[in-house]
Amino acid sequence: MNDAEFDDGLLEGELRGAAAILDPVPAELRRLAVEAFMLRDLDARLAELTFDSLVDAIPVRGVTDAPRMLTFRAGELTVDVEVTERGVMGQVLPPQPARIEVLGGLQPTAPATLTADAMGRFAGDVPTAGPFALRLRTGGEVVVTEWLRA
Questions:
Q1: Three-state SS across 62-77?
Q2: Cα 14 to chain centroid, rounded
Q3: How far is CA 83 from the centre of its chain?
Q4: Residues 3-16: tens digit of each pLDDT
Q5: Is the pTM of this model over 0.85?
Q6: Closest to 132 measured CA to CA, from 112, 114, 118
Q7: C-alpha distances in angstroms, 80 versus 7, 100, 106?
Q8: For a designed S-S bond to 74, which of 23, 47, 96, 108 qualifies (C-beta 3.0 to 4.6 A apart)?
């Protein structure tokens, strides 16, 4: 076989197809890779989860559809978030304008973007149906929350 008959693109396609069938990437590894890629902002600070109503709140008898309340903290910045089936709403403290991106696990599309007003309030019909995180851009600072399951 000479070089004119050899097609690198065809060979690569065949090898990728064989690898996908014979040795697929484990779902957990793919999830971790996506999460690592979403944290690609080298200057981003990680906001620690300090309150989760699923873990920290005392259940109220008779309430079945209570929204999930989350609090994240990164230094002096606090983000309170309420997650419902319809979307998210919350507030950035201290109050300040911000751009909030709702990152989804295996979303092929661009993240949904919300805008916090001068009081730090934001809301949007962005359903969180799987793993999600928030990326906040406030002034010159970028903060990314921990990843959670909705």
A1: CCCCCCEEEEEEECCE
A2: 33
A3: 13
A4: 556 677 788 888 88
A5: no
A6: 112
A7: 55, 12, 24
A8: 47
